[in-house]
Write a structure and sequence with these properties.
about 140 residues, alpha/beta
């Protein structure tokens, strides 16, 4: 049985990237993104030398900025990050490097008391009980 649709949720970068191919019924009615996702998307065009891909990534960033509410990284997110980091460290998993972006996105959802919608639920398995993580399937 599919999970019930939430009124509001935060989607991570993996969902933003695949948004055009996803079933809207698998997403919250009202969508927010973390400012961290916007940062990842802003870096995207600079991470490729291919002009067509660079333009596609820039377009994705601009559409995302225009379409969704962006939640900032603020004091509440910083405190939530401490809780997220502690949960990851207790599970003896890596909590630094590129993964820290994912954990900051999770902390944004936790601070805003929103479920986190992701295409990569295994990346957040150690947060069970701390944060609701919703797996977004590919249709």
């Amino acid at each position: 049985m599919p999970e019930p649709r939430h009124d509001r949720g935060l989607i991570d970068t993996s969902v933003v990237i695949d948004l055009g191919g996803l079933d809207p019924a698998d997403l919250p009615s009202e969508i927010a993104v973390s400012a961290v996702t916007l940062a990842e998307l802003a870096a995207g065009p600079h991470a490729t030398g291919e002009l067509d891909e660079r333009a596609r990534r820039q377009d994705l960033l601009q559409r995302t900025e225009a379409m969704f509410e962006s939640l900032p990284v603020n004091g509440a997110v910083a405190r939530a990050y401490g809780r997220v980091y502690a949960a990851v460290a207790a599970a003896e998993r890596k909590a630094h490097g590129r993964r820290s972006f994912d954990l900051l996105i999770a902390a944004t959802a936790l601070a805003a008391e929103l479920p986190l919608y992701t295409r990569n639920p295994n990346d957040f398995e150690e947060l069970e009980g701390l944060l609701e993580v919703v797996d977004v399937p590919v249709p």
